[in-house]
Specification:
alpha+beta, three-stranded antiparallel β-sheet, 14 strands, 2 domains
């Protein structure tokens, strides 16, 4: 990253009109660097056009708040329910995801008018003292924050796949200086096992972070920082992509079929590695965390390094200690306090792959009604990631937050933290 995507104070931790207005404004602010031609491009099936994100997050409030709670409300457009439904089959059949980039209409101007219409219609609900309404508003705000992160990563996929390698934002000398600061040597912090509690413990959370529950952990050790570009380049130079013994079977097939030989956005020319960043293609920064790697790549690197990926319970147990030490206040992560000489880069650098399959916690229950499709229906064939990334909005990171993607996915800011079993 080259400059803060989310200015300080852009997002607040608690619900209400301030949160709603701040989140909605920040989504549009993220789109301001775009040219009008950028709004409709879909470079890959997983990456939706910015115009779609602007409309879908608006559709969420219209569908789950205005229609059920405002008497006589009429949808802004009779076909928007179909066009901008993501995966809620209880609402209706969604427009096919791979074809989102084929829609030149509605125009960007029409989508922005749709946002203004819904924002105006939401004003009475923002002041309503109703627990169900306020809970849905808070959920909608956090849902939109998720799409803010997707906006950044999808815009990067769009611009990064363009042969011109255009920049989304300008580089700053301070950001470059921060990324090339000397890093601490890689070391492993030993963590005593035992009975631990994991899951959300107060404040906002998604349903997949509940219920809080106990489980047993054996002693383990967690790397004190993320793996760097230079360390990953050494894996490539050592032939890591060509050694079948390092790869899971599905991973080896994926690597062969797509001829994968480096992280997404890396390019090798004249003996030098380059990386496309949001500020354009630049020479690889050796000490920056390696990112845009799949679970397959992360797992192969861990084997090559004589280690493994942590389980999500191990990661959360270690992260809870950091949270207790004062990295969170009022439910908001304060990055300046999140660094630790013993265990750093836990929050807000890269999403960290874990070895845990995405599934329900013991006693998990989905939300009632159509909102129950939010998380639970995806608990199959995906891996859990932890920690948030440089594209995650402030106030949207917590030790219990569970992200999840398929093992092949790498267009998100996904990185690597190593773990080892330990006998303390």
């Amino acid at each position: 990253m080259s400059e803060p995507l989310f200015p300080s104070g852009a997002v607040v931790a608690n619900g209400g009109r301030h949160q709603y207005d701040a989140v909605r404004a920040q989504t549009e602010a993220l789109c301001r660097p775009l040219a009008i031609e950028d709004y409709g491009v879909q470079p890959m099936v997983d990456a939706s056009p910015p115009k779609w994100h602007l409309a879908h997050t608006t559709w969420f409030f219209e569908t789950f708040l205005l229609r059920p709670f405002v008497y006589g409300y009429q949808p802004y457009h009779p076909h928007f329910e179909y066009l901008f439904n993501s995966y809620y089959n209880g609402v209706g059949t969604p427009f096919p995801r791979p074809r989102r980039g084929t829609l030149s209409r509605p125009t960007v101007a029409e989508v922005l008018a749709y946002r203004q219409h819904v924002d105006a219609a939401m004003q009475p609900l923002l002041a309503r003292e109703d627990a169900e309404v306020q809970g849905r508003i808070e959920l909608g705000a956090h849902h939109e924050q998720q799409h803010q992160e997707l906006l950044v990563t999808d815009i990067k996929a769009n611009l990064g796949s363009n042969p011109l390698k255009p920049a989304y934002c300008a580089a700053t000398e301070q950001a470059d200086a921060e990324q090339v600061e000397p890093i601490v040597p890689l070391a492993f912090e030993e963590v005593a096992g035992g009975m631990v509690e994991t899951g959300a413990n107060g404040g906002f959370c998604f349903d997949n972070e509940l219920p809080r529950h106990k489980l047993w952990l054996d002693d383990f050790a967690l790397a004190n920082r993320l793996i760097t570009n230079a360390e990953y380049a050494a894996f490539i130079a050592a032939g890591g992509y060509d050694e079948p013994s390092l790869w899971l079977s599905d991973g080896w097939t994926w690597r062969q079929q797509l001829a994968v030989a480096a992280p997404m956005y890396w390019r090798h020319a004249d003996g030098v590695w380059f990386e496309y960043r949001l500020d354009g293609e630049r020479e690889l920064l050796p000490d920056a965390p390696v990112t845009h790697v799949s679970y397959f790549e992360a797992d192969a690197y861990a084997r090559w390094a004589g280690a493994r990926l942590p389980t999500e319970a191990e990661w959360e147990a270690a992260a809870q200690v950091r949270a207790v030490q004062g990295h969170f206040a009022d439910g908001v992560l304060h990055p300046q306090r999140a660094a630790s000489p013993r265990l750093g880069q836990l929050f807000g650098d890269c999403w960290e792959w874990t070895s845990s399959a995405y599934g329900p916690y013991p006693g998990y229950r989905t939300l009632a009604g159509t909102l129950g499709e939010y998380n639970g229906k995806f608990m199959s064939g995906q891996q859990v990631l932890r920690g948030g990334s440089c594209a995650t909005p402030p106030g949207h990171v917590r030790p219990s937050y569970r992200n999840f993607f398929y093992a092949k996915d790498r267009w998100q800011f996904t990185g690597i933290r190593l773990a080892k079993s330990a006998c303390l």
